[in-house]
Write a structure and sequence with these properties.
338 residues, alpha/beta, Spore Coat Polysaccharide Biosynthesis Protein SpsA, Chain A, 5-stranded mixed β-sheet
């Protein structure tokens, strides 16, 4: 990485954050960005804010963020809006419930992409934090994908090489069934432009399009990524899955690409059946505890049926209230730090 003595040598980075009434989490998120070793005058923070009524905008201004008015129906439209205003050579997608775990995350991510032109981007590990409940740590640090249904359907990435702190990962041949592209993910702006992301952005769709164009590898940084404060309680998880399902179905209206149809490990119906059964979740709970020595795997037992409940609730909500333009905003569950 070039020396910080000449800041003009550092590529410009745009950090994009969609927000809506995120005051409980945003200060924590932006403070972690402020601790980055990347020079402050070489990155910009762009909030695509869906007209928050709390202190979200004031917090953004405290950290010198550019704040845009997001009039869209979902978070993807906000990210497209922010992309149209971004000036960076590299784009980082961060959610308000994320916290970058290490001060050198941006520096190492940009350096890794400079040295690995074949990689489509950098994915963060989801690491536990003292600010998380045990349930949140299970969802994010153990499942990584934050939902048992998606976890069961996803293909298992394979580590192909490691050089210093940079790891190279790839999916098995013949599948693109892995939801890649959110929560601290770093892209080259040129790659996003190649798939018209500023017009068609949808996080997992962009990564899948780049894979289909030949960039099957992506990078991870050893032991680094985000603390993802997805949700702290089981009740909040059901609400979150409801909202996520409504959001997913709305995005499908505009862009029918779907990673869950790209040769998943198991079909959706079987994943749902697994989650409402006893023996499948019990098997993975015992296996997880035995492998990791982590009793937080016990949350797998109630989380599996809760996921199906939340997803089914979301489908019913979408069918009965799909005309409500503020539906996504109104379904936002409470998120907080422990």
């Amino acid at each position: 990485m070039p020396s910080g003595l000449n800041n003009n040598l550092w590529p410009r980075v745009s950090i994009i954050i969609p927000t809506l009434n995120a005051e409980a989490l945003l200060d924590n998120c932006l403070a972690a960005i402020a601790r980055q070793t990347y020079p402050r005058d070489r990155y910009e923070i762009i909030l695509a804010d869906a007209h928050s009524t709390d202190r979200t905008r004031a917090i953004g201004k405290k950290f010198d963020a550019l704040i845009l008015d997001d009039n869209g129906k979902n978070m993807e439209e906000g990210k497209r809006l922010a992309l149209q205003h971004a000036t960076g050579d590299y784009i980082v997608f961060v959610d308000a419930d994320n916290e970058l775990t290490h001060p050198d995350y941006l520096e190492l991510a940009v350096q890794g992409l400079q040295k690995n032109p074949q990689a489509l981007g950098v994915e963060g590990y989801y690491l536990p934090s003292a600010k998380m409940s045990a349930f949140c740590a299970y969802l994010t640090a153990r499942l990584h994908i934050s939902d048992p249904v998606c976890w069961l359907m996803s293909a298992n990435p394979r580590l192909v090489a490691r050089e210093g702190e940079v790891e190279r990962w790839v999916l098995p041949e013949g599948t693109y069934s892995y939801p890649l592209g959110a929560n601290g993910f770093v892209y080259r702006r040129a790659d996003l432009n190649s798939v018209q992301a500023n017009e068609k952005f949808q996080d997992t769709h962009v990564a899948m399009s780049l894979m289909k164009n030949g960039q099957r590898e992506w990078l991870r940084l050893r032991g680094r990524g985000v603390h993802h404060y997805y949700v702290q309680t089981l009740r909040g998880f059901v609400q979150k899955r409801r909202r996520a399902t409504v959001h997913f179905l709305r995005v499908q209206e505009e862009m029918p690409a779907n990673w869950m149809k790209e040769k998943p490990l198991v079909p959706l119906w079987l994943a749902a059946f697994y989650c409402v059964s006893l023996f499948g979740p019990l098997f993975h709970t015992m296996r997880g505890i035995g492998r990791d020595g982590d009793p937080r795997w016990l949350w797998h037992l109630p989380a599996c049926p809760a996921s199906v409940l939340g997803n089914a609730w979301g489908m019913w909500t979408y069918r009965t209230r799909r005309g409500d333009k503020k539906l996504i905003a109104n379904l936002k569950p409470e998120q907080f730090l422990k």
